[in-house]
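We were asked to recover a plausible sequence for a given structure. The inputs and outputs are reproduced exactly as logged, with field labels preserved.

PROBLEM: sequence recovery
POSITIONS: 127
GIVEN STRUCTURE:
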């Protein structure tokens, strides 16, 4: 109901709930693209293959630029999709993460990647 100035008073609980939903949705949109990118570039598979690695090692393994790999690794670790070992300063996949992101024979991976986007980047060969 509008107050005297024509605007309804803001309910702080409803506002926080709406902002939380918006932030979650934005995070999901960004992380979705990073998951597809990591899958298509072979980052998950390479990390599963070489085991704990830093961004330099994974970049060399995948022939990708270290800085971009570092940003991807950090975002994936922040989301809990890969694991970071602060003592060793390396990233790795747990058995569960590997089942979802790296093992092509895993039913969990097939379920997670059942929906395929038409084009990740228009004009690219990444379909």
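RECOVERED SEQUENCE:
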């Amino acid at each position: 109901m509008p107050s005297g100035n024509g605007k309804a008073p803001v309910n702080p609980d409803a506002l926080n709930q709406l902002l939380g939903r918006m932030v979650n949705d934005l995070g999901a949109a960004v992380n979705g693209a990073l998951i597809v990118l990591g899958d298509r570039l072979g980052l998950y598979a390479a990390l599963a293959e070489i085991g704990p690695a830093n961004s330099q090692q994974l970049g060399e393994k995948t022939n990708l630029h270290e800085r971009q790999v570092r940003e991807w690794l950090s975002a994936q670790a922040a989301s809990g999709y890969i694991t970071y070992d602060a003592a060793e300063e390396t990233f790795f996949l747990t058995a569960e993460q590997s089942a979802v992101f790296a093992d092509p024979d895993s039913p969990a991976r097939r379920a997670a990647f059942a929906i395929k986007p038409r084009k990740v980047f228009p004009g690219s060969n990444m379909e």
